[in-house]
Amino acid sequence: MKIEFSKKEIYLKDIKNVEKVIKSGWLTHGVFTKKFEDEFTKFTNSKYCLTVSSCTAGLHLSCIAAGFKKGDEVIVPAMTHVATAHAVELTGAKAIIADVDYISGNLNLENIKKKLTKKTKGIILVHMAGIACKLDDIIKLSKKLKLTLIEDCAHGLGTMYQNKHVGNFGITGCFSFYPTKQITTGEGGAIVTNDIKIYKKIKRIKAFGIDKDIKNRKIPGDYDVKSLGLNYRLTDFQAALGYNQIKNYSRNLFLRKKNAKRYSEKLKKIKFVDFPEFDDSNSYFVFQILSKYRNKIIKKFKKLGIGFSIHYLKSINQMTYYKVKNNIKKYEYKNTNKYSRNVISLPVYPKLKNKEIDFICKSINETINE
Hints:
By secondary structure, this protein is α/β, with parallel strands linked by helices. The chain is built from 13 helices and 11 strands. It has helices spanning 12-24, 31-44, 55-66, 82-89, 109-113, 135-145, 196-205, 236-247, 249-267, 294-304, 320-325, 334-342, 354-368, and strands at 48-52, 73-77, 94-98, 120-126, 148-152, 160-161, 164-165, 172-176, 189-193, 287-290, 343-346.
């Protein structure tokens, strides 16, 4: 039984939308970009949305909009994709790597407090594997110390915290539409914000610093540039690919949760397997387990044709750039190092069948008890 790690929810109507855009010749600045952004704000219940070329671009733009600069420090979790820290470093500020909670992989208040200095200007939270960080205390601390909070929601489309979609707690929330994510535009991402000033600033920066939309120019070239900017736009055919996916994402999300619940029920009976308790507010980008028998399980999965991934095999504190620059000692990141040694990401996509979940769980159980 071959089980893929990820399967796309792309249908004929999505392909027809892409075809429509390509045939129109209007490959960027088109109608689907606006339609996608409107649907995204509706789904996340945020005020504003901007599509971008990647979640990394969204994080970089957010760090620029926050005003991070040389001499500033921004706290990020050790357990995340390196893009989270890179976004800080690219502004000239320094990414300060903090240890995480072992079971969730998320930053918590105690992790953050250990890394605070007079130079700390912000925090980037990552909702690991779709599990929301415990935000209340972190938000209180941020307000008290006047720290800028940014949310990396690359895994978090559909994740709620106290009935509010993640991404609505910081100055921005940045989402990823990479092929393995809950919806995809190939590459691509989106930023949500509830601050009109941040929205306008990022909208300008993501398009070279140009002060006027193409559709508002009386003649070609009728615009001014008053500040530096980048080219971080999403194409219209990418927005067309993602439009129906976000419009119909509620069904995708429902099935992910159903699959995750089945995993939880089956795996809780197996010794030497840890995972966060099932939570209906989690979007389940993947279903992660932690086991000291990971390497043994991986070997079995490869033999049986079961797809899996690891988020992340090498945490940021183990990457040479950050290890050298921050003079990182291995013992400083006890939880993160243990997490990266033991974590496995299991498939949880909507097309996954019950019998496939059962087969994966049975394989794990047999492997551990061999």
